[in-house]
Specification:
Belongs to the WrbA family. By secondary structure, the protein is an alpha/beta fold. The protein has one domain: Flavodoxin domain (Rossmann fold), CATH 3.40.50. 43% of the residues lie in helices and 16% in strands. The chain is built from 9 helices and 6 strands. It has helices spanning 14-28, 44-48, 51-59, 68-73, 90-97, 100-104, 126-140, 153-156, 179-197, and strands at residues 3-8, 32-37, 76-82, 112-119, 143-144, 165-167. Strands 1, 2, 3, 4, 5 and 6 form a 6-stranded parallel beta sheet that branches. Helix 1 crosses helix 9.
């Protein structure tokens, strides 16, 4: 059984939902899965100013936070993060940067990685965010697995071959129907992870 770590950062719940869909599909595909939230760095007074952010923060307090031990444990990873000016949020960057010790020991080499993202509009930097995250993964020596166009569900979800992305309206609702595409990406990640981990 391969081990898959799903790491997400979510301020109002979109990427948490993507992570949950990915978790369900990965388990269906036979993986042992850990879902871990990336630690919130924003001060609570800032969170309190946004009711949706505060509600999600409170609702997910019991979700375990991601650690380097989770990175070391997993054979493969899925990251789900929102875009911040075409790049990953500071919270995700801090978590990734904390993995320097594992990187120096070669413990991230040949880990399989896939990524998903969200933004408030259809061209809000989703592809750039995913590709910027993958840049770090190349430094890790990881194996990148995007969904590509390996299933028609990718087209139905907006056609992002690098990693499923979704836009979110002003009320926090997902615009595109991406559930099936997320699940396909997760299953594909597990499938490739099995091939890599068995060698």
């Amino acid at each position: 059984m391969v081990k898959l770590g799903i790491f997400y950062y979510s301020s109002t719940g979109t990427n948490y939902q993507l992570a949950q869909w990915a978790e369900a599909a990965a388990k269906d595909a036979g993986a042992e899965v850990r879902v871990r939230k990336i630690k919130e760095l924003a001060p609570e007074e800032a969170i309190a100013q946004n009711p949706a952010w505060k509600a999600h923060y409170e609702a997910t307090k019991d979700v375990p936070e991601a650690t380097n031990d989770d990175l070391d444990w997993a054979d493969g990873f899925i990251f789900s993060v929102p875009t911040r000016f075409g790049n990953v949020p500071a919270q995700a960057k801090q978590f990734i940067d904390s993995a320097g010790g594992l990187w120096a020991e070669g413990k991230l080499v040949n880990k399989v990685v896939s990524a998903m993202t969200s933004a408030q509009n259809a061209h809000g930097g989703q592809e750039a965010t995913t590709l910027n995250l993958y840049t770090t993964m190349f430094h890790w020596g990881a194996i990148i697995v995007g969904p590509g166009y390996t299933d028609p569900v990718t087209f139905a979800a907006g056609g992002n071959p690098y990693g499923i992305s979704v836009s979110v309206d002003q009320d926090g609702n997902m615009v595109e129907d991406v559930e099936a595409a997320v699940k396909h990406q997760a299953k594909r990640t597990v499938e490739v992870t099995k091939k890599i981990a068995q060698n």
